[in-house]
Each structure stands twice: as C-alpha cells, then as structure tokens.
Amino acid sequence: MIRRFLPRALIVALAPLLLIACEGELQIRLTDAPADEATAVNVEITGVELLTDAGTAETYDFDEPRTINLADLSGGRTVTLVSDDDTPGGTYSGIRLLINAVAGESDSTITFSDGGEFPLVLSNAGGGSRSVSRNFTVEEDERTALTIDFDLRRSILEPTGTSTDYRLAPRLRLVLDEDAGTLTGTVDESRLTDSDCDNGDNNDVGNVVYVFSGNSATVSDLDNSVDDAITYGAVEMDDVSGEYTYTVGFLPEGNYTVAFTCQGRLDDPLVQDDIEFSGQTNVSIDAGDTETVDFD
User: What is the average pLDDT score of the chain?
Assistant: First the structure.
C-alpha cells in the first residue's frame, strides 16, 4: 500500500481543485542491467517521486522500506514500485528514487560470488535520492506504464581510502513501456570457450551482449563517454533448452548495433579498456515486438 502525504494547510487549500483534477493510472517498474561478480545487490527503497518542471513532486512513500535485490532483475525481469489508479494528470519531467544507503549502516549491501558482503553507500551528490529525467504525461482515465532501468555495472564503484564500503552512484534509464521492444537471442558455446575469453572457466560470467544506439555505432568498451553502449544483457545458460541465451528488454523503438564479448569482466566502466568483441550486427526494434539476434 502507498500513502501520499501533503501538509494539512495545503489539503484544505487544494480541496476544491482536487475534486475536479483529472486523474490517470500509473505503473512504475524497476529492472536491471546486470553486473559481473555480484550475486546480490540489495538496495533499500523508501519511495518514489514524480518530478515537475516547476520543481514540485508527487510523492509515493512506501508504508515500509522495500529491500530489492537488483541482481534478480536482469534479462527483462521487473518488480513493481508504484501501481496507482489516481495519479494526478499532467506532464512530468522525471522520476526520483528515494534510497537508504548511508555510511555506518547496512540498509543497502552488495554480495560477491566469494561470499563477501559489504555495505553500499550513496555517493555524496544527491543526498538520499537519485533521479532520472524524461518527460511523460499522465492522461485522464488512461494508463501510463514506465520502467526504470538501474544500470548496476556503471552504478557500483570501488571503496576509496581505508573504507570497505562500496559506493552507489545510480545510473538510471527511464523508458515508456508502450514505446519499447525486446531483443533476445542465443550465443554459440564456442564463443564462450575461446582461448581469449576471460571468464575463469566459468561460462556464467564475463559474457555480455552490448547494445549501442544507431546502425553505424562504434563498438567499444564502456568508458563513461557519450558513445557508450546504452545497455547490455548477460549471457546465461537456459536450463530448459541447454543453450546460452540473453535478453535485453525495454529498448525504445529505433536502430541499434549489437555486439558480443566474452571479456566483460575486463571492462571497467570508468576507463578505456582494450576488450575484444567476437561478433556484431545491426537490428531494428519496433515498439511492442521482440527481435532475435543469434551469435552463431
């Protein structure tokens, strides 16, 4: 259940307006672009705010803080943060996540494949929240569905100094669901066992499909530049088919360059790394459709 809080004086002053204000249905979900090595990334979220150009916010405070394991949300999987039939209609400029991740606490944590668990602490800028900008409109008696893509690979930074706390600097992407499609496919096992791969003889790590905007994109590592991949998907074994598959969801309609690498563990998202890609192709994504690209 979600509660909305307004000062009592404002409730009285706005009461006549609220009776005639248009309202629509809003759904906000959360998904994740994966990160290597981490087996769990538990982030405590206390609420969501809808932002306006005027600097005001429509706030959804959760009854209780919600701890969400972002590592469970890759491959197009989602969790619902907001589902409201009475969202005030109008145009909004973005969404803000309200996060508990402060030094000296363990509200949010990261766990690695070796079993080590460490606190996650929000980087200094932004206080206890992170926002993502994108204009969207809630129409009267209409449904608006949005998905926030939380980019783990670029959101978690190493500890500094003598601290053992990992830093959380959320990189978020906001997608209007009705404008988006899905990319999926298989990767031949030979590409995962090549002698140049860096996966420690574990085919479940280091194998990543990068998605770049445009058909003429330059395929390269993540290095915090404007031509970085906009998102990516982990290649994982499908227990039913026995094939190695990937899924990248919530891609806005358009043209993309898709590339595979088995050296994903070598890619530091903040610096330029000389990683190799063993295949690339172009694909067009249509809203509501699923396109398949196989790396045979």
Answer: 87
Backbone angles phi, psi at 52, to 5 degrees: -120, 160
Sheet holding 172-176, edge to edge: 79-88, 23-33, 143-151, 172-176
Question: How many domains does the chain fold into?
Answer: 2
User: Do 196 and 163 share a structural domain?
Assistant: no
Element (H, E) at 191: helix 189-192
| pLDDT tens-digit readout, 190-202 | 998 888 887 766 7
Over residues 143-186, the pLDDT tens digits come to 999 999 999 989 999 898 888 899 999 999 999 999 999 999 99
Tokens in use for 169?
């600097």
Look at residues 170, 189, 218 and tell me which one is the last residue of a structural domain.
170
Residue 75 CB-half CA count within 13 A: 12
First to last CA, the chain: 47
Q: Print the domain residue range for 75.
A: 2-170
What token pair was written down for 27? 């759904």
